[in-house]
Amino acid sequence: MRTHRLDAGPDTVHWGFFDAGLKPLITIDSGDEVTMSTVSGPPEAMPKAISGLKIPPALSAIHSNVPQRLGPHIMTGPVAVRGAKAGQVLEVRI
Q1: What is the mean pLDDT of the chain?
Q2: DSSP E strand stretches across 8-82
Q3: What proportions of the chain, in percent to the nearest 5, are helix, strand and coil?
Q4: Cα(90)–Cα(4) distance, rounded to whole angstroms?
Q5: Separation of alpha carbons 60 and 56, rounded Å
């Protein structure tokens, strides 16, 4: 089993849609572990600097460089599983 990491950033997310046609960012083997980071929130929902909350630098870069399509959610990925075929069940533990 290998361990992989995929962090949210302008080159690793899509904003507001699912699409089976997206190219996988990484391809893993069955049983591998993937740690993914995520970010959330449109620019208008970001807390003020005086709140003391820290906004990840990647989120500002995503707001500037990734177009928002249909919905509000920023999604990291996709990830492909080598050998998986349409109709098969994949187990995902979060």
Answers
A1: 93
A2: 13-15, 26-28, 33-36, 74-76, 79-81
A3: 15, 20, 60
A4: 17
A5: 7
